């Protein structure tokens, strides 16, 4: 479970839930919290950041791609 003190103990799942219900400006704040966790846990090559100038579709793509990857259960892939 990925949490961060800057998020007041919220898990990635909780942040993604918040992001899904937030309005434009708050979505950006929540997205940057998500990206901070990903960077701190070295799940991205560098810190991702978005602003009001970032197209909403781009923000959605980044949040759901990177955030969703951290919440997927580990799957053991085996060859038949």
User: In one word, what is the shape?
Assistant: globular
Sheet-strand content, in percent, reads under 5%
Structural class: mainly alpha
Order of helices and strands: HHH
The largest β sheet comes out as: none
Q: Could you tell me how far the N terminus lies from the C terminus, measured between alpha carbons in angstroms?
A: 31 Å
How many helices? The count is 3
- Any low-confidence stretches, pLDDT <50, length ≥5? 74-80
Structure summary, number of beta strands = 0
Average pLDDT confidence is 83
Helix share bin: 40-55%
Radius of gyration based on Cα positions: 13 Å
Oligomer state of the chains in this structure: single chain
Structural notes for this entry:
- It is a single chain.
- The protein has 80 residues and is mostly helical.
- Helices cover 54% and strands 0% of the residues.
- It is built from three helices and no strands.
- It has helices at 12-21, 24-40, 56-71.
- α1 (12-21) packs antiparallel against α2 and α2 (24-40) packs across α3.
- The longest helix has 17 residues, at 24-40.
- It is globular and about 25 Å long.
- The protein starts with 11 loop residues before the first helix and ends in a 9-residue tail after the last helix.
């Amino acid at each position: 479970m990925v949490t961060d003190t800057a998020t007041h103990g919220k898990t990635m799942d909780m942040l993604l839930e918040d992001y899904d219900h937030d309005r434009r400006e708050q979505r950006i704040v929540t997205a940057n919290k998500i990206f901070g966790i990903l960077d701190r846990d070295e799940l991205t090559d560098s810190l991702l950041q978005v602003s009001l100038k970032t197209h909403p579709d781009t923000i959605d793509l980044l949040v759901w791609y990177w955030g969703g990857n951290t919440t997927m259960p580990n799957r053991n892939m085996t060859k038949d």
